[in-house]
Amino acid sequence: MNILNALTLRSLKLNRKRTIVTIIGIILSAAMICGTFSLAASFQDLFIQRAIKTDGNYHATFHGVKPDQTKYITDNAYTKTAMLSRNLGFARFEQSAFEKKPYFFVKEYDAAAFQHMPVKLTAGRFPEKAGEILLSEEILQHGGGDYQIGDTITFDLGERIAENGQPLSDGLSYEETEQFVPTDTKTYTITGLMAKPHFENFSNIPGFTVVTYLDQGAITPNEPVNVSILGKNARDIYNKIPEMAENAGISDFTYNNELLKWMGLTQNDSAIKMIYSVATILAILIAFGSIIVIYNSFAISVSERKKQFGMLASTGATPGQIRKAVFFEGALLGLVGLPIGILSGIGGIGITLSVVNRILSGMMGSEDLALRLIISPGVILATILFVGPIILFSAYLPAKRASATSPIEAIRLSNDINIKGKTVKTSRLTRFLFGFEGELALKNLKRSRRRYRATVLSLVISIVLFISISTFTNYGLKSADLYYHDIPYDINVVINNASPEDEKSFYQQVTSLEGVEEYSLVKMMFCETWLERDKFGPYIKKNYIEHNISSENEEYYFDQNILSVNEDGDYQCHFNIIAVGQPEFKRYASENGLDWTAFQDPQNFKGILVNKNTIEAPEYVEYEPLQMNAGEKLQLTEFQYDEAAAPPASFSMDISAVTDTLPLGISSTNLGEANLIVSEEVFAELEQLLQDKQGTPQLYICSTDSTTLADSIRTIYDGYADGTSLFIYDIQASRQEIQRSNTVTAIFLYGFLTLITLIGVTNIFNTISTNVALRRREFAMLKSVGLTPKGFNQLINYECIFYGLKALLYGLPISILISMLLYKSFGNMFQFTFFLPWKEVIACVIGVFLIIFITMLHASAKLKDDNIIDALKEENL
User: Fold this and answer.
1) Separation of CA 611 from chain center
2) What is the pLDDT of residues 155-198, one digit of tens each?
3) How far is residue 348's CA from residue 35's CA, in Å, rounded to a whole number?
4) What is the pairing mode between strands 633-638 and 650-659?
5) Domains in the chain: boundaries
6) Which of 53, 336, 325, 370 is nearest to 195 (CA)?
């Protein structure tokens, strides 16, 4: 080791505080980069696991492939794994207790398909040869309780035929008028049970799924199959699949969009734009934050290090030798800080994921799904390649500055203290508002501008990171809400063809059942009116009245037969007049700060306008349909289904309130429509006025045990006359699926926010405490000329205020600008009204001053008992 390296090592040891602070800065930066991307990779892995469990582990499916064409797919060089499947059709399930599912839905899988398709075995084994079958557990719960593993079961396979004689497709729901025509008989041995397939939660297939073994050798030339594949490189999937389809002479193929989406592969241009723009903004934020954290660790002590380099130059060290010594110092600090930072980032995320896994236990729809810590060599390498040069660059700057000055000037620090009176001049207002101590505090900050700027810059980047990531979190949750369309109820119940008396009695019995927590009895009628252009919201005016439509979406918009215009230049708008039952109306009115009794007068029609809607057109859009205020009147006309009928009835409706929330059971409307919520009394009077009962009431229920409640409802229904029909849609599983997705999204976003917040707080504490420690001689000098302990405390407090105000002055506008960029990026796929996370902004303002005060008081407390003479003698070597 040469003499300069030895001196560098000795300097690091003598200035332990400065060395430790610099290492902490490197650790924070490395932990932020490595931890952030490890967290993102771990959550991406979770969603990929989940997509495989729910949708299958394959990339694409070719449909209706003839046996002689399969070789063009299975033997293709791009195909890693191929799996065959097909739908055999339906078979009667005579014992079914679910009136909307009177069939078995029979599918066939080969051995590879059983391993890759979303089939979760719960008992027994998979079918291994023709004549073996796997039943869904749902069958045992809905009338098939006598079936046991090892039993034989005979099916009459056939087709569903509509009333007009045409075959019904598999995905169409059950129709009471349909006929079942048997075409074949099959006998199977039950080998196992499987969990309810995920697709049943979101489909209308009127049968319980069963899966049998597909024997490829037994397929006749005229029996097409579906071929699903895993490609060797998923990134080429959108190029390879059309090419393979063309070679095989196949026109029908689909992608496993759910899996590909979480792998970062999508054909949705809007989604790609959003993902890349948001990722770019976040990457720049994190990169810039990392640079500032490391640079500040060096910049705080620039003057002391300049003096050291001046001393080396005075003893004959050349600029080249000094540079080598600086790089040696940076390398030493990096060798210590980088591994600890990377391990800290990975370890911190590992601990976080273990805690999150406990929270998510059982929430992702499968016990074997968990957040796994993904340690990517690429992330580790990227962290080293990014942080390493920053360390060397930050360490090199002081050496470069020192080499530009003479050794004498560098030792005396004459350039650092060469200030003019104008530089530290303060206004009289400062002395008037803050007194002598406040003026002195501001002069101190102006005198040490480089150190002051480094501290303010550290605060600014912490503010920008916190507010920007808070905005990202809020926009992410808002986008998830638009994407998943949260369902606020568990069961939808409808009794058809019942007399008004039976209908009323049935719903009263159902709503009084144990397990009904909340309910809404929804009745709806349809009206219309003509409104002036200015009565419509900005989104509708821009896209549907002014026709300011982008070419890529033009076909979509003009396919919508909406917003007719009359000779007066007014546009047609449809209104859904809705009653939700007295209990729900009372709750809804109270939630919106309204007196529900004010809406009960049947002679004075009053309604609540729901002025928020969500559509997919083709991006997800949240907009205000109308620009109307409480107190305005609507002249509504009964919607006419038959133009040859008598003239429609008209009436006037007062808009007594405008809100953006929906009552239980009501969802967003179509374009050109709006919801008006009225009381039961007003709705009954309107029914009399219009002389037409439009539609059948629907009951929406919230319950913790929807399965038991549904059984109780069926028991009540058994007492009603023939000719009626009961529809029960249990969507608790779908609702839970959406809630799970939202929960995981929230945990990821808030976890990311927490990580950035901790790093920001540590950065502030690190910067300010170092700043105070390096000013030990300065404070001792002030005390030596008569500064009292009280005056010292005031000096510190005023410095805190000046630091906070200056940081917020720069940090808040920059944060707002980045929030606007994030809003624009999310707008590629999700359109909603721009907003700032005001709660987080207020918390940030309070937090900045709180952290500064606590840090300054903590750091200065250590200096209070200093001996003035000893402190004045001290040198930072």
Assistant:
1) 24
2) 889 999 988 888 888 888 788 788 999 998 999 999 999 988 88
3) 7
4) antiparallel
5) 1-56+274-418, 58-255, 420-486+734-877, 518-702
6) 53
